[in-house]
Specification:
By secondary structure, this protein is mainly alpha-helical. The protein has ten helices and no strands. The longest helix is centred in the C-terminal third of the chain and has 31 residues.
Length: about 270
Amino acid sequence: MKPLPSERLLHYGIKVARTEGFIEGLWKPGLACNVAGMSLSAAIRFGWYESVRDTISRSSSNRYHDPGSSLLESEKRLSHMLLAGFSTGFVGYVATAPFHLVKTFIQAEKGLEVVGRSKISPFFGTLISLAKKNGIPSLWNGCIPLGARGALFTSGQMLGYDGFKTFAKDYLNLSDSPRLHIISSISAAFGASVLSAPADMVMAKYMSNQGKSGINTLQCMSLIYKEGGIHGFWRGWAVSFIRLCPVMLTFSTGYEQLRNGLGLGYFT
């Protein structure tokens, strides 16, 4: 079921819920793929972030460090956090690109199933079918734009979380506690939504203009700028921020408590 260009997102969501059901239409299609892909992506991004950040910090420092010593809070720089978030975010999203691709196919099949034109295949069935039809490399189609979006998203997320947490501990004398984790999670949601908004806007514009032959990313960016100026690239970021807040609050605080429970200490 393809929405008309004039329909608003909310109206389209209501239509899908009425015709396909709230759970079956809006919630369930592609859910398992999305959970698996985002979980693996988060494991890569958070698992490598500290090591990459500290490596960048040590390589850019004029002071010598014992290889086994931990980096002092004051030695971390915002640029280190941005670079570490950008690199781990790009790798994390590119590595899990097949999950995002299969999720899109399953969601599209759901719309065709409603009008009797297709039947939804399970995750592995869709994955194998795509690989056999187009080859294994085709599972990474579109991985570069996806990786770029993941890089921007993770940069903003880690700058918001790690940056605010470091600032609060160094200058506000706040202890490393669940209260600080909650505040830092909100900051992470803000950073991620702001930095990833331009990429989301370009992707949305590209998808809505797929019927026009020859349109590319640069043309989409030009259209956005003509329609709303530089501010047009951040249209809708507040909605993204509201959506991300509960996600960041759940994931980041849970991650901190899991680390502490395993004896690894809080995220530094």
